[in-house]
Amino acid sequence: MPPGDAVCHNQLKARPGQRPGPPLPQCPQRTRPCDVPQPAPEHRRHVFISYSRADRAWVDRLRTFMAPWLRQAGEELLLWDDSQIRPGERWQQTIETALAQARVALLLVSAEFLASEFVMGREVPVLLEAAEREGVTILWVSLSPCGVSRTPIHAYQAVLPPDPSLLEMSEPEQRRALLRIAEGVHQALLEATEQERRRERQQEVEATRRREQQEREAQLEREEREALARRRAEELAREERLRVEAERQRDAEQRQREEARLRQAEQERRQREEEQRRRERQRQEQERRAKRQQELEDLRARWRRDRQRALEGLWTRRRLLIAAAGLPLGALGLARLSSRGPASLPLTTGPGGGGGDQALRTAASGSGRQGTPQTITVRRGWLERSRLGWQIQTRPLQVRSRLEQLAPNVTLRLIEIPAGRFLMGSHPNEEGRHASEDPPHEVTLKAFWLGQTPITQAQWREVAGWPKLERELEREPSGFKGDDRPVENVSWHDAREFCGRLSQRLGRAFSLPSEAQWEYACRAGTTTPFAFGETISPELANYDGSVAYANGPTGVNRGQTTPVGNFPANAWGLQDMHGNVWEWCLDQWHDSYEGAPADGSAWLSMGGEDVTRLLRGGSWYRVPHYCRSAYRDRNHPDDRNQYKGFRVCCLPQD
């Protein structure tokens, strides 16, 4: 570099092999943060300051005023000047590199600056060319009176008015001018950086547009090639069809004869198979009849044994009572009966024998016999929306049912649930749905029988008095008393004991329903949130009616259980499936339906009796979205409260 010239520029990072500049002075307390320009992409990213060595002092003063920006940027913004070029380095190459990386050029113009051959012959032309070609921002400052108006520099923006120059200003004016120069350089760098970013974004848009155009042209070319290939393939296929048709015509008669022979053979085979199936059906029917006859004989024999034991007990008790009273058998007309044995005792007695009469009537009623299916009529209900709001509609409905006799005045009615399949889970847009109701999945079920209502307190009390299997049952567990109210305050283990006693006494397999059976029966062929439609009314179920569901009607919050069967039935004749009490199901709890059985069986994958169990149906104290057909709840199998009850399920046993 010629001795009379110097160059200084600030870089975002020091180049390899160069030492950073001297430590910067401490920045005074700032009243607001300074904006530091972010590096722009590509290679132009700093400010280049061109000056004459005679004007070096102005560079030092400018560095002092730029100290706040330099300190805030830290090592990301450094000043460089020719005094830092180490011996042996290529100073000209270093300066050319700095020129190539400049985004904003600040020219400190003086008479010495304009007289410098290196500055005006090498640096300034490079910067002016970069300004025209790449948009580099040119700023200049008049340090002293000079002929700058005679140079191309004068065509670019001056940071300060050239008149007066810095040398012609007083010291305070110079300090204010230097501060304005520092701010102007910083603002120019920010604007240049933003322009570069806008230019890059425009280039990206143009590149995207060109790429899309090329892709469209390539797509058209591919479509043309594919169309040509299709036409060629169609021509080949047409030629092949003609050839095949000729061969088909030649072989037509032989093929027809062969097909006729095969049809005859197939018809004969089918006749043989049909005859075999008919014989197999006859054999199976004979076996079923024999099995039914044997079961009937076994049932009759068991009934006779039970009746005989009951009569023997009654006869023995009467003999003891008569003996205790000191009366002869003839006094009560029993001498002749005693000689014939207990089997000859009548089913009624005179006054004073009420307890024995009840035992005889219970034994003779056949409480363990299976009920006969029959058709009954129930009242079905649903909700419809009209101009007047939500309206409850009802109509008679005939369903098949079975009545089980638990005691002379206590029965259990079961409803036949047809075989079929349904989508288990809730719709993604259903109000109030939970993640545990995902994913919806199809389930196929066989026919079964389900209690028309939850188990009542009268039914519970009767079965609780039967001999225990595994655990004792409290006869009066419910908090809300009433024979026709649902039993509550019963655990999952209690409900299982109840089902076991039913199975033993009635000779059929009773259990809690699986979760799939419960939801299938509750929906009764519907896909809406409730069996009654898109919403629910307190006139159709017992729940917290003060809260509406999906803009539905509101009403009373009864705050307790209600007698079963008070509300309309669903499309399959079941009642109280929504609300009243939670109903225990057989399944163990799973957080979702991933891996759930598709055949309607209970999901029992973890083993053990103390695993958390399923509850369905909501209850009298829950808001309506808990009573939806798809809603799932859980609890420990030993938990009891006034919200939980159950209904029983029975599979067909023909």
Write a compact overview of the structure shown.
This protein is α+β, with helices and mostly antiparallel strands. It has helices at residues 56-65, 67-73, 91-100, 111-115, 117-134, 171-325, 335-340, 354-364, 457-464, 492-506, 515-523; strands at residues 5-11, 46-52, 78-81, 102-109, 137-142, 157-158, 374-386, 389-407, 410-417, 420-424, 441-445, 448-451, 510-511, 582-588, 613-616, 633-635, 644-645, 649-650. The strands form four sheets. Strands 3-1-2-4-5-6 form a six-stranded mixed sheet, sandwiched between helices. The protein has a six-stranded antiparallel sheet with strand order 7-8-9-12-18-13. It has a four-stranded mixed sheet with strand order 16-15-14-17.
Care to describe what's here?
Residues 1-42 and 325-370 have low confidence and may be disordered. This protein has a six-stranded mixed sheet with strand order 3-1-2-4-5-6, with helices on both faces. Strands 7-8-9-12-18-13 form a six-stranded antiparallel sheet. The chain has helices spanning 56-65, 67-73, 91-100, 111-115, 117-134, 171-325, 335-340, 354-364, 457-464, 492-506, 515-523, and strands at residues 5-11, 46-52, 78-81, 102-109, 137-142, 157-158, 374-386, 389-407, 410-417, 420-424, 441-445, 448-451, 510-511, 582-588, 613-616, 633-635, 644-645, 649-650. Strand 7 and strand 8 (389-407) form a beta hairpin. The protein has eleven helices and 18 strands. Helix content is 39%, strand content 17%. With 654 residues, the protein is α+β, with helices and mostly antiparallel strands.
